[in-house]
Write a structure and sequence with these properties.
single chain; alpha/beta; 25% helix; 17% strand
Length: 321
């Protein structure tokens, strides 16, 4: 797939969905989509990637200083203490023999910081993953079929960093609006010498998060951003990767590549390919190590919280090299 008709997002989405649909591939009852590619055999092989024992968190912070602006009620996390050292010192906790403690609570949208999009997150013309009716799958009670808890035990295996920002960007960063094509991904793979294949969890670094650290959040949440081109749909399907994550708010390039569209690549890859998408990951420290060592693959565990019926989940991905 090369050229895009900017005036026809619906036609392009339908064509890409038709070429890349995985509906029925793992049976009509499947709830794991591309996570089926990440098998026990893949995990055994990936475990051998732990050579030095150094680890990196790929999570942004979960606090009030995050990037969210309240779009569609997405706010930054609100952390509140329920019991504190002050309470203990005042002797008002009611515990015997001098013991005291602290407790806290957090309130947040599940997709306000580093997170997975689950298979119930995006629909195409009223259908969710594997051809199910969206209205039957996700209700006010949650996702009763493909809730994020269905993959809570399986997202661990070979991770591969594709540092597109370092390979192709000026100063290690791609500019906002830069559409990362399959050719860009393959060029990065070739320059790094890091193969990508079935069952892998791919982490794409654009460098936008690095820029936000330096200049402030700005419009990170929902504004212009580098990201994957709509034309990568075929690559995302054909490589048979298990998941892909980026350091941006919305995974795909923004503004989107059509005149009137909103996240059209999501509309193909989640409900049709069954691909898990990670957003707002922080690969910067890992990227420095990968560039220094020349090794871009690693053991990665990125389990979601098993929140019953959730269509996404916050995570703390850990890469170990």
């Amino acid at each position: 797939m090369t050229g895009l008709d900017r005036s026809d997002p619906e036609g392009a989405i339908a064509a890409a969905a038709g070429r890349n649909s995985n509906w029925g591939r793992w049976g009509g009852d499947d709830v794991r989509g591309t996570m089926n590619f990440l098998t026990p055999a893949h995990r055994r092989e990936a475990a051998a990637l732990i050579r030095r024992g150094v680890s990196f968190s790929l999570a942004q912070s979960f606090d009030m200083d995050g990037p969210q602006k309240g779009w569609r009620r997405r706010t930054n996390p609100v952390h509140t203490m329920l019991d504190t050292g002050t309470d203990a010192a005042a002797g008002i906790q009611g515990f015997p023999h001098g013991i005291g403690g602290a407790d806290d609570v957090i309130a947040m949208p599940l997709q306000c910081s580093t997170q997975w999009d689950g298979l119930g997150h995006i629909f195409d013309h009223g259908h969710s993953w594997n051809g199910r009716l969206a209205a039957d799958t996700v209700t006010s009670l949650g996702d009763n079929t493909t809730g994020i808890e269905t993959v809570a035990s399986v997202i661990a295996g070979r991770g591969v960093l594709l540092d597109v920002g370092r390979c192709l960007g000026m100063g290690g960063e791609l500019p906002d609006g830069f559409a990362v094509t399959a050719a860009h991904l393959e060029e990065t793979i070739a320059r790094q010498g890091s193969a990508v294949g079935r069952g892998d969890i791919v982490v794409v670094r654009t460098g936008q998060l690095s820029r936000c650290r330096r200049e402030g959040w700005g419009d990170y949440a929902g504004g212009p951003a580098p990201g994957l081109s709509f034309t990568t749909a075929d690559w995302l399907h054909d490589t048979e990767i298990a998941a892909i994550a980026t350091d941006t708010w919305g995974f795909e390039v923004r503004p989107n590549e059509f005149d009137d569209a909103f996240q059209p690549l999501h509309q193909v890859v989640i409900p049709h390919i069954g691909l898990f998408i990670g957003e707002m990951w922080d690969p910067d420290a890992l990227a420095v190590d990968c560039a220094a060592s020349g090794v871009y693959d690693f053991w990665l565990t990125a389990a979601p919280l098993p929140i019953t019926g959730a269509v996404g989940s916050p995570i703390n991905p850990i890469a170990v090299k």
